[in-house]
Specification:
Length: about 180
């Protein structure tokens, strides 16, 4: 994908929005919505990484998708602000949450979808940055909506998608949680 982004940039393509990326891809004969989302997320991650890193942990939120849960063994309860993890260990969520809490994160949510992310952020003015885990279409939509209101967003795409039993690169999530904290290793 980096080669494709470099090729588009060499052509002088506007890559500032999803619409612009889609037009640039069509110009070179590529036409796939998933590819548009992948490029958009990648570009936004690179552009917003330093802003996210400068945001104090107290003003950051972590959003994890409910699809990471193990539906057979999960003990989490759904509330108005998402699922509350019971730390049963049946999925990667508890490991990620424990790491985030050790780093000082207070705003951690397991959400069933992007609309709940927007609702949570509207009701919590103390959050200025967000790290989200989801599939590319959800990430792309959330980044697009949040960037218009000045949020510093970073995204980690799922390795295995679908609506149940998805997977994420836990190490990558942990690495991004540490940005700007002096312990990125």
């Amino acid at each position: 994908m980096l080669e494709l982004i470099a090729r588009l940039m060499a052509l002088g393509a506007d890559l500032s929005s999803k619409t612009a990326i889609k037009k640039a891809l069509a110009f070179i004969g590529e036409d796939a919505d998933e590819l548009v989302d992948q490029i958009y997320v990648s570009i936004k991650n690179n552009a917003l990484k330093s802003d996210f890193a400068r945001t104090p942990v107290a003003e950051r939120a972590l959003f994890l998708p409910q699809c990471l849960r193990d539906p057979e063994n999960c003990k989490a309860k759904l509330t108005e602000i998402g699922y509350i993890c019971e730390r049963c260990g049946s999925c990667s969520i508890s490991e990620i949450i424990e790491d985030a809490e050790r780093l000082g994160y207070k705003h951690i949510y397991i959400v069933p979808g992007g609309s709940m992310v927007i609702k949570i952020l509207k009701n919590n003015s103390g959050i200025k940055a967000a790290l989200g885990v989801a599939c590319y279409p959800e990430l792309s939509e959330a980044i697009e909506r949040l960037s218009t209101v000045g949020f510093h967003t970073l995204a980690v795409p799922l390795l295995k998608t679908g609506c149940v039993n998805t997977e994420v690169d836990v190490w990558k999530v942990k690495q991004l949680l540490r940005l700007g904290l002096g312990n990125e290793g």
